[in-house]
């Protein structure tokens, strides 16, 4: 994969985020409910899901909406994963929660929805458009009480990445399947040893300062020997399984894999500087952002599925969409729903919303990345998407317990004790 191709993809994706494309659903087809609405001001807070974390991009996405619905004013605030949760908690406590939030079911459904803070969006799910949403996505957006607290926009399967040039020089490319972007656990170990023999002392980093990017460390550990993070019923956390303990002990034994109290962002930065041979927090959106914002990147990035014993990975999926906080103000709630309808039922707006995420649609639609070689390459990972377990009760507590457990393992080496403490804390 050459950087020229990556740059082209980045430009294409960013341009697509603000360009009008495809045919649009008519105003009559969308059945607007706000023709007689008085001027209404609502807030939209977005986590950095691709370019949904860029205020300029989001404002561009709203331009056509404001023309269609001039009586609705949308104020945008972008929050990050390091401080966003705290900001929202404070806003809720102060009675100033945003009207709309753009994030995934792990927060919208399993956290805020579970607390009874959100509006049931079941009426939005009755549209013809919603009927085309993939069933696994639908399930993730629905709470155990039957309410739909999220209306989805985009999805992806998270992966990892390797420094292709470094792997080639170290003779480690022999241990990956370049066609399928997969490798076995034993080949992963051999690749790490090849990097060490070559003299590269930092193959990878188990980052564990906070929960940001923890989908990478979770997927690495659970895939290595066929472990899981929860049971299939999403009722019990299974981190203390034999398979997961074996994986954690193996990672500890690899001298060039370190457990460090660093953020996922720092891992990505160190990978892009060439210090780390691998990045465990990666996806298409991250790659595009790095190409745009990091012109000093001077090696080819090659995305990989996480290693698995049988080379059949189960990747951590990502789903992102809209949730509506219950302000008790029916006019604001209806305005929020109108924005969601516009972004998801209007073909042109929906395509731009997906392109801004640099991920994939949650329903069947025409190929939107047909001229983008990077996104075509990353689409291979969608077939490896595993169980979406992020809606398991106690999810917020489990995420915090996970990175603290990794810190404990890195500091003490006591895997058995650490995972037992994790299980005792979260399985209550």
Structure description:
This protein is of the alpha/beta class and 428 residues long. It has 17 helices and eleven strands. The strands form three sheets. A six-stranded mixed β-sheet has the order 2-1-3-10-4-11, with helices on both faces. Strands 8-5-9 form a three-stranded antiparallel β-sheet. Helix 3 links the parallel strand 1 and strand 2. The longest helix is centred in the C-terminal third of the chain and has 18 residues. The radius of gyration is 22 Å and the shape is globular. It starts with a helix and ends with a helix. The N terminus is likely disordered.
Total domain modules: 2
Low-pLDDT ranges:
1-34
Order of helices and strands: HHEHEHEHHEEHHEHHEHEHEEHHEHHH
Number of helices in the DSSP assignment: 17
CATH architecture of the largest domain: 3-Layer(aba) Sandwich
Number of strand segments:
11
Helix content: 40-55%
Sheet bearing the most strands, described?
Answer: 6 strands, mixed
Which geometry do the CA atoms define? globular
Q: Give the CATH level 1 class of the largest domain.
A: Alpha Beta
Defining traits:
428 residues, alpha/beta, D-Maltodextrin-Binding Protein, domain 2, 2 domains, 6-stranded mixed β-sheet, 3-stranded antiparallel β-sheet, 17 helices, disordered N terminus
Outline the fold blueprint.
Layout: H1 3-18, H2 27-30, E1 40-46, H3 55-68, E2 72-78, H4 84-93, E3 100-103, H5 105-113, H6 135-141, E4 151-157, E5 159-163, H7 164-170, H8 185-198, E6 204-207, H9 214-224, H10 242-253, E7 257-260, H11 264-272, E8 278-282, H12 284-293, E9 301-304, E10 317-324, H13 330-345, H14 347-357, E11 360-361, H15 373-378, H16 395-412, H17 415-426
Parallel strand pairs: 1-2, 1-3, 6-7
Antiparallel strand pairs: 3-10, 4-10, 4-11, 5-8, 5-9
Helix pairs in contact: 1-12, 1-14, 3-14, 7-8, 9-10, 13-14, 16-17
């Amino acid at each position: 994969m050459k950087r020229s191709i990556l740059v082209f993809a980045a430009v294409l994706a960013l341009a697509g985020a603000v360009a009008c494309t495809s045919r649009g659903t008519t105003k009559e087809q969308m059945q607007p409910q706000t023709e007689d609405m008085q001027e209404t001001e609502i807030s939209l807070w977005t986590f950095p899901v691709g370019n949904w974390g860029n205020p300029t991009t989001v404002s561009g996405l709203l331009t056509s909406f404001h023309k269609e619905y001039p009586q609705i004013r949308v104020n945008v605030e972008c929050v990050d994963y390091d401080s966003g949760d705290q900001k929202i908690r404070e806003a809720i406590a102060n009675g100033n929660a945003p009207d709309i939030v753009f994030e995934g079911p792990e927060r919208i459904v399993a956290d805020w929805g579970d607390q009874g803070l959100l509006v049931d969006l079941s009426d939005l799910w009755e549209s013809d458009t919603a009927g085309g949403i993939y069933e696994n996505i639908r399930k993730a957006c629905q709470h155990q009480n039957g309410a739909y607290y999220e209306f989805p926009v985009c999805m992806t399967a998270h992966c990892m990445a390797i420094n292709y040039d470094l792997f080639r020089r170290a003779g480690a490319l022999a241990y990956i399947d370049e066609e399928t972007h997969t490798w076995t656990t034993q080949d992963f170990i051999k690749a790490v040893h090849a990097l060490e023999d070559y003299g590269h002392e930092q193959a990878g980093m188990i980052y564990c300062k906070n929960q940001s990017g923890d989908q990478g460390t979770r997927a690495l550990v659970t895939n290595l020997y066929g472990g899981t993070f929860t049971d299939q019923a999403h009722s019990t956390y299974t981190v203390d399984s034999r398979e997961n303990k074996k994986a954690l002990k193996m990672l500890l034994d690899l001298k060039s894999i370190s457990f460090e109290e660093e953020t996922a962002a720092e891992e990505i930065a160190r990978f892009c500087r060439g210090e780390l041979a691998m990045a465990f927090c990666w996806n298409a959106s991250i790659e595009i952002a790095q190409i745009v914002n990091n012109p000093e990147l001077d090696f080819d990035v090659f995305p990989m599925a996480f290693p698995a014993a049988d080379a059949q990975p189960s990747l951590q999926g990502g789903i992102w969409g809209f949730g509506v906080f219950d302000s008790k103000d029916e006019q604001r709630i209806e305005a929020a729903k109108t924005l969601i309808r516009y972004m998801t039922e209007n073909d042109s707006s929906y395509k731009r919303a997906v392109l801004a995420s640099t991920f994939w649609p949650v329903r069947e639609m025409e190929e939107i990345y047909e001229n983008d070689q990077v996104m075509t390459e990353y689409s291979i990972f969608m077939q490896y998407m595993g169980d979406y377990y992020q809606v398991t009760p106690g999810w917020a507590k489990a995420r915090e317990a996970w990175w603290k457990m990794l810190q404990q393992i890195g500091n003490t080496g006591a895997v058995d004790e650490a995972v037992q403490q994790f299980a005792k804390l979260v399985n209550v």
